[in-house]
Structure formats: C-alpha cells, structure tokens
C-alpha cells in the first residue's frame, strides 16, 4: 500500500508540475502564478523543480513493460525465441529513458507466432507485424498510417493518399523507416505505444528518436493517440549504430 500511495503522489506531482509549466508557457509569470494560487513565488519555484518530469506520461504512469517480438534460433532442435541485437538495443534506450523520468522498465520476449497481450497499462510494443502479425490488424485503427505487405515485402502506407514508405535498406541504402504511434488497446480501456521498424534498424532508430525528443513529443501530444514515420540512417560498417533520425511526416493526431 505504501508503494501504491507513493506512486499516486508521484503521478499527482507530475500533473501539478505539468499544469504549472503549461501556464508559464502561456505567458504567465511565476509572480502571477503565485498571486493566483495564493502562495509565495519561492513556493511556485519549488513546485516547478519538484516531483517527476511531466513528459514521463508519454511512456506511462507506472512500471513500463516493453513487449518485444522474438524469432526462433536457427540450427537447434529445441529453439527458443531470441531478440535481435537492434531490438534489445531499442529496449535499453527506452529503459534508460524511463529511468531518467522516474519509471522502472522491464522487457518480455513474445515468441512466434507473436501473440502479444495488449490489454494492460504502461505498455510499449517493439518490432513490426512480421514478428507480431496481430499488430497489423490493430493498426487499422490508425486512419493515417499502417504497415502492409505485398510481394516486395512490408512497408508503411498512408491509406488516404496511397503514399508509400518502402525501406531504403531494401535498395541497398543505409537507412530504414520506423513507425511511431499510440494505438488503442483491443479492450477499449486505454492505449499502448508502438515502435516498429520495417527492419531492425528502424526499430532501434525510432527508439532513439523518442529518447532524443521526449519533451517535444509530450508537449505536442500528451498521451493522445497519434502516428508518424521516422527515417533512420545507420553506419555502413556497424549496422547497429544509428547515425541520424528524422521525422518525415507530420505528427498525425487520431483524436480531435
């Protein structure tokens, strides 16, 4: 019960700090906030530096679970599900990000055929529908972007415009596309964050994009549903080294 109360206090302090920062962003001064709230300016300053960072809500409000699609080991009579180095690298980036904003994180491997349990809070799912086929159906709730497959493989498409984002890696370039979005849970009781590269480099690069842009993403989106495409470039010799990330579509908002 103490742990639950401490978690509630941390979440309430995050909401309070976020509200104060929004008011300041709306051109109020700390002195005006103090007058409005009937407290001293030093107390306002204290509240702005206390508590957890508001942007942590982009990841979750409690311990974060990262569900990662795995594939069977090759050449073994009793193969177990394993993760690619890039997928595990994406987990490490996001777990460290969670820790910096006061959240714990753990991962679980989703073995083939990829039956991932989506109806739970504080969930981030990694890897594309090639490993997690059910996600291609869940993505149909996204009116702007989704992964589809044809005889040339998987790619991201805008359903309304027909615009396609086919991985440059398939043409020999050192780049891949990643999907970043918040999708509805099947039970209708919340949402989860989904990060999926067409190839492993896209997953790793998109995780890095989130880590490098968390405050901006939270400021623009809060915890609302959205989606976007990230172009991830990687090193010629070390394909697990991401050299740059760039958002190539708007932040498509799914609600209001």
From TrEMBL:
Residues 23-54 form the HTH cro/C1-type domain. It comes from Actinoplanes hulinensis. CDD domains: HTH_XRE. This is Helix-turn-helix domain-containing protein. The lineage of its organism: Bacteria, Bacillati, Actinomycetota, Actinomycetes, Micromonosporales. InterPro entries: Cro/C1-type_HTH (IPR001387).
């Amino acid at each position: 019960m103490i742990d639950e109360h401490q978690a509630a206090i941390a979440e309430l302090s995050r909401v309070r700090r976020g509200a104060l920062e929004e008011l300041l962003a709306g051109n109020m001064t700390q002195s005006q906030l103090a007058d409005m709230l009937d407290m001293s300016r030093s107390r306002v300053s204290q509240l702005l530096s206390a508590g957890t960072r508001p942007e942590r809500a982009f990841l979750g409000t409690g311990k974060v679970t990262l569900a990662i699609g795995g594939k069977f080991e090759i050449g073994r009579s009793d193969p177990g599900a394993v993760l690619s180095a890039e997928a595990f690298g994406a987990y490490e980036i996001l777990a460290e990000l969670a820790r910096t904003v006061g959240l714990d994180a753990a991962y679980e491997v989703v073995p083939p055929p990829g039956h991932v349990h989506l109806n739970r809070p504080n969930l981030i799912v990694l890897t594309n529908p090639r490993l997690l086929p059910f996600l291609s159906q869940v993505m149909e709730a996204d009116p702007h972007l989704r992964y589809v497959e044809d005889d040339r493989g998987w790619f991201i498409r805008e359903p309304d415009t027909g615009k396609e984002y086919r991985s440059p890696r398939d043409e020999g370039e050192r780049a891949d596309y990643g999907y970043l979005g918040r999708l509805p849970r099947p039970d209708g009781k919340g949402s989860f964050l989904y990060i999926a590269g067409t190839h492993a480099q896209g997953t790793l690069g998109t995780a890095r994009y989130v880590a490098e842009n968390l405050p901006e993403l939270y400021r623009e989106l809060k915890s609302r549903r959205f989606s976007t495409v990230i172009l991830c470039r990687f090193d010629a010799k070390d394909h697990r080294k991401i050299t740059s990330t760039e958002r190539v579509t708007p932040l498509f908002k799914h609600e209001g």
